[in-house]
Design goal:
With 226 residues, the protein is mainly alpha-helical. It has two domains: 2-123; 168-226. The chain has six helices and five strands; from the N terminus they run αααααβββββα. The strands form two sheets. A three-stranded antiparallel sheet has the order 1-4-5. Helix 2 (9-57) packs antiparallel against helix 3.
Length: 226
């Protein structure tokens, strides 16, 4: 997280805002949808119970059926009441603990660099960790772990791929790169250099041989021929 923020602070802030808002909006909308459904069904049951009593009072249904229906309605109504209470509590919690991105950004900026990893630092950044049950897939043991950050909840830090180190190219004794690592243009220049080097070497050898011969024949009749 620290390394990602240091190199991508603007992108990080944008992602935190978008993903945190998305998580909250999705959860709140789902809770509100379920709450509306449960409240509507509760009102329907209240109406059904009222009609059931009216029908029983008018001797339109036998007592056995009245008791069975009323028991079923009562059980469903109790379940709905509990669900409504829980859903309303979730919505209230979302409203009262709105994701405070500014606080998280402040926390991140305060700890973009640190010298040691301490329990205090962990508690500042992490709200909770959920460790799922381990399972084996194709003989490999896997275990999912979810990390929820303070203020923003669950946030997947993008994987930062390390920049591959450049391969060190060996250098020959004359400072030349091995030919199998050269480009076509480098090879062409290398061949031209070799030709010039060989030509100079041959010319120097011939000059040396000629100088040596001239020195030997100096003062003789053959010296003029050279």
């Amino acid at each position: 997280m620290s390394g990602y923020v240091r190199k991508n602070e603007a992108k990080f802030i944008e992602r935190v805002r978008k993903e945190s808002a998305l998580q909250q909006d999705t959860a709140v909308k789902e809770s509100k949808r379920k709450l509306t459904q449960s409240q509507r069904r509760r009102d329907e049951i209240n109406g059904l119970i009222k009609k059931l009593y009216e029908s029983y009072a008018a001797d339109k249904i036998p007592e056995k059926h009245f008791t069975e229906l009323l028991t079923g309605y009562d059980a469903e109504q109790t379940s709905l009441e509990n669900e409504i209470i829980n859903l309303q509590a979730e919505i209230d919690a979302f409203n009262s603990t709105t994701v405070n991105i500014d606080k998280f950004i402040e926390l991140v900026k305060r700890h973009t660099e640190f010298s040691e990893f301490s329990p205090g630092l962990l508690n500042e950044f992490i709200e909770k960790v959920i460790v799922h049950e381990a399972e084996k897939v194709d003989g490999v043991r896997t275990q999912d772990i979810e990390i929820f950050f303070a203020f923003i909840g669950k946030f997947d830090v993008p994987e930062v791929k390390p920049v591959p180190a450049q391969k060190e190219i060996p250098v020959l004794s004359r400072g030349r790169t091995p030919r199998h690592l050269m480009t076509e243009e480098e090879l062409r220049r290398e061949r031209e250099n070799d030709h010039r080097y060989y030509a100079r070497k041959v010319a120097a050898k011939k000059a040396a041989e000629q100088a040596e011969r001239a020195e030997i024949l100096q003062g003789t009749s053959y010296a003029k021929a050279i």
